[in-house]
Each structure stands twice: as structure tokens, then as C-alpha cells.
DNA sequence: GCTTTCCTCAACCGAATGGTTGAGGAAGAG
DNA sequence: CTCTTCCTCAACCATTCGGTTGAGGAAAGC
């Protein structure tokens, strides 16, 4: 389907039903039937949604008798986080430079350190 | 078009060309022509992409003579960040609770709560 | 064996998406 | 006023997407 992994993750989360599934899966693993129950669509539609999430690497399915328990995979979220953080750093860098120009070039003071807890690449 | 703001933001960033535009706009504002130049598509296509980004609130356009300078709007990224953080909190909460269960096993704890999930807000 | 439960695959459908081309508005340059 | 530049709107086209229904596989229960 769609090309790069990042596009797949963003596209997968662009659907509110899929986002809701992810939210619920963050609480507990669930079977396809359990996942489908609150929504007003067919089980097949939910199965399709799960395939999209699985292709994006957000979810994995194992096997337990006839059931296919769905499990949320956390790592892929880091892809997004990293991309967003990169943008954020660039934007801050941009404003920092603008600030420097307006302040007539100070030495190397960093007036706005990124307020983040460890997520740096 | 697509419904809620969060869906629009995710959908807007699901396209690699649009993500690249955002990356470049994080460095500096740009006109439509400047933005279109590196890509192998028509200017109209780029204009459409910008419309998607604008509808998502990621970008704003002003007017300078015939030119329409494009400016990146940072606030909307917080929508995503907040959603991701909420997921992260839930996931951590989940593992914390699992830890509690394995450690203590109280009486009236239901280890598999029925799918009475609240809708995602 | 047969049935039931849980789930996926396949085909189809309408709507949205990303691209094209062509026409045209808006504003500066001559 | 005319021309050029920059950009958007409109129509069209192929593909993808989210949904449906119908058929069927896999594993437990009878």
C-alpha cells in the first residue's frame, strides 16, 4: 500500500475509529469481536481497520484458539514523536536565530532549552 | 471533508510531500512557487497540498502583492502531541496496574473488565 | 462426523484523494 | 490599457479508502 513507514503510521491514525481502537488497546489487549462491539460497523470493517494498524506496525495479532488477540505495539509511536520533535527543534531553532538577529548576536546563550524529558535523537 | 481536527492533522501529515513542505516551512516561510520548485508536480498540485495543510490548521497564508507567503502554525502540533501523550499515559497506567495485580491480587478487582469502554473524546 | 464461534478473504460500491490540464483573477511592470 | 507573474478554481481521471455482503477457513463443542 502506501509508501514509507511514517506515512503509514500517520494515515493509520487519521481515522477516528482506528484512533479509538488504539486508545482502547492501550488499556488492554482485545479480540476482534470485542473491539468491534462498540462501533456501528460490521466485524469485517473492523478487521480491515486492524489490518491497516498492523501494516503500520501499531498492532500485532497472535492466535488463541479461534480468537486473534490484538496487542498494541509501542515502538512505532516513536517514529512520529521523533518526526514531530525534529520539526519542533527546527522551529525553535528558527525563532532562536531570529531572536539572535534582533538582539545583535549574543555569544552562545541558549535562552530556550527544549522542555522535554529524554526523547532526543 | 474529514471530520474532527485531529483526523485532519494526521491525514495532512500522512503524505510525504506535505511532510516535506512542513519541514521546509519550519525553517522559513515560503511562497507557493518556492515550495513547488523541488517537487516534480504541477504548481496546482502543490496549491492543493497547501489547502489540505491549511484546513488542518498547520499553515496560514497571507498576501504580499501577487504572492501568497505560507507560514507554519505551531499550535496544532500540540493536538497530536497531547493525543500521543495521553496514549502513553494510558499504556503506562496499564503496566502499572498489571504490576499491582501481580503483586497483590486484591479481592474485588476484575482482572478483565467488560468492554464498557468510554468513547474517545 | 456436524455445528457453532470467531475471524478473514473477495467482490463490489460510493466517496475521497492526488494528480493532470485549462481558464482566469489579482496585482505589479511596461 | 496591456502584459507578465503568481496563484487558485473547475473539470476530469485513476486510484485508494471505508463501508457493505457473501463465502469460507480454523478451532472448539456437540
Largest sheet of chain A: 2 strands, antiparallel
Task: Supply the CATH class of the domain at 5-73 in chain A.
Answer: Mainly Alpha
Going by CATH, the homologous superfamily of the domain at 5-73 in chain A would be: Winged helix-like DNA-binding domain superfamily/Winged helix DNA-binding domain
Question: Count the strands of chain A?
Answer: 2
Strand content of chain A: under 5%
Region (Disordered) (chains A, B): 102-121
Protein name (chains A, B): Transcriptional regulator, ArsR family
Organism (chains A, B): Geodermatophilus ruber
GO molecular function (chains A, B): DNA-binding transcription factor activity
Please tell me about this protein's structure.
Two copies of one chain form a homodimer. With 121 residues, chain A is mainly α. Chain A has a domain at 5-73: Arc Repressor Mutant, subunit A (Orthogonal Bundle), CATH 1.10.10.10. The first copy, chain A, is 55% helix and 5% strand. Chain A contains five helices and two strands. A two-stranded antiparallel ribbon of chain A has the order 1-2. In chain A, helix 1 runs antiparallel to helix 4 (43-55) and helix 1 (5-13) crosses helix 5. The radius of gyration of chain A is 20 Å and the shape is elongated. The structure holds a DNA duplex (30 and 30 nucleotides).
Amino acid at each position: 500500500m502506501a509508501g514509507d513507514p511514517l506515512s503509514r503510521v500517520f494515515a493509520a491514525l487519521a481515522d477516528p475509529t482506528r484512533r479509538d481502537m488504539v486508545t482502547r488497546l492501550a488499556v488492554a489487549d482485545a479480540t476482534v469481536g470485542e473491539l468491534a462491539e462498540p462501533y456501528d460497523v460490521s466485524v469485517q470493517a473492523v478487521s480491515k481497520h486492524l489490518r491497516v494498524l498492523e501494516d503500520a506496525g501499531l498492532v500485532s495479532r497472535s492466535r488463541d484458539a479461534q480468537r486473534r488477540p490484538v496487542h498494541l505495539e509501542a515502538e512505532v509511536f516513536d517514529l512520529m514523536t521523533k518526526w514531530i520533535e525534529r520539526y519542533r527543534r527546527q522551529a525553535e531553532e528558527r525563532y532562536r536565530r531570529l531572536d539572535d538577529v534582533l538582539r545583535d548576536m549574543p555569544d552562545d546563550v541558549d535562552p530556550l532549552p527544549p522542555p522535554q524529558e529524554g526523547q532526543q535523537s
